[in-house]
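Build the 3D complex.
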Amino acid sequence: MTNSPPTSPRRTPLTGVHENLHASLTDFAGWLMPLRYGSETAEHTAVRTAAGLFDLSHMGEFAVTGEGAAAALDYALTGEPSALKPGRARYTMICADDGGILDDLIVYRLADDDFLVVANAANSKAVGAELANRAAGRDAQVRDRTDDYALIAVQGPRAAAILDRLTDTDLTTVKYYASYPAHVAGRGVLLARTGYTGEDGFEIFAAPEDAEHLWDGLSEAGAADGLIPAGLAARDTLRLEAGMPLYGNELAADVTPFDAGLGRVVKLDKPGDFVGRRALTDRATATPQRQLIGLASLSRRVPRHGYPVMWNDEPSGTVTSGAPSPTLGVPIAMAYVRPDVAAAAAQSGTGTGTLAVDVRGRLEPARLVELPFYRRST
Amino acid sequence: MTVPGELYYTPEHEWVAISGSTASVGITDHAQRALGDVVFVSAPAAGSRVTAGEPCGEVESTKSVSDLYAPVDGEVTEVNPEIDDDPGLVNSDPYGAGWLFRVRLDDSDGEVPPGLLSAAEYAALTKEDQQEDGE
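Done.
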């Protein structure tokens, strides 16, 4: 984790809008971001049942361009961006030589020699430096474009219907993990069908000066459908229910994609070398030291980040993320446990042992739940 | 943010309503806003003794868990039965339906128990908090 800078947090093009909405603002990775506008549970539920509007302008954006851009990204990342068709996007990771995860990313291929890499705000600096480093001498340019984009997400089952009122683009042609240049509310944007909530939805990359116009347009267009602004608190419970990892919780520099159950993002069969190949090749076949599992609490006390997971009263792992789940109505958590414990816990219906979380000194029983906790029905 | 004038407060953001020898206790509007949606309250059991300044329970919200501190010395006589089913009352009505528990005061000499803050003192304290937050 990077240390937050001693300066006051940065504002997004929409911070003034959040202040007018009386949002509760928080310093998140050096940015002043809305934690919640009213009730985070109501915001969560709106995204599951209608739609939510998010300001994600704190995310880092990097343009990687040039004749060698595709090859440079194949070398820099675990995935194979050169295999993407223009207009498509992929979830991927950037790893260190030892296979440890430096960040998880979405790579959008905008054109043959034009890629947009979206990084977590907390890792943005490190990702930018690593990309520049790894692209050097490969006929590719890396530019930090974070300040050039406002990023607004509209997420939820009503998202497409709401957005449809503001654009001529036929949204039925915009596939999941695709992006297109489009006009929304009269402004030129990059429209992507991506998200971090477990719902259908869109992410809109726009010029900072258009952000307020787009926010207001989407708020208005979606009001009758139940769209409300949603903050980082709701975003966290939404992604947790959807079983999506968060850097700093499930993902870290001492975790490989295989530990996180995300070995599929490592394309060991792609041609050419890439950073971390040797270590990740070893990890792909080695027995993992830990396994990511889902837990549902049988108590009302909430397992939280860092709490020990107990198997037959022995410390056997650690909670990475936990929260009361608005959709399931019980506290849920993701945790790393020893693989033998994960296997034994899967059999625990037969009475082989008991799973619990040490919640501030008291063992609260939990049960193993298959990830994700929530999967949308359509 | 509201700070009713007739109540007493603690620096840990509990409020206390004194009526004869009984103190009703809850958390303040400032506290519920900072916590976000309350999902579970573990209050001290009726019949148990609490000591001013000591943790006597916890309040779980979406993002965090906080200790609940006893604002006074005494014996718990009653726990709000509604909170278990509807912990959101702490958010929607922190000074009313969201009360948490009642205590029979050890010293019911008509004096206000020591260490409690007046509404003005508490308002000043939370103002300082907000200024610090706003830096």
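The radius of gyration of chain B is 14 Å.
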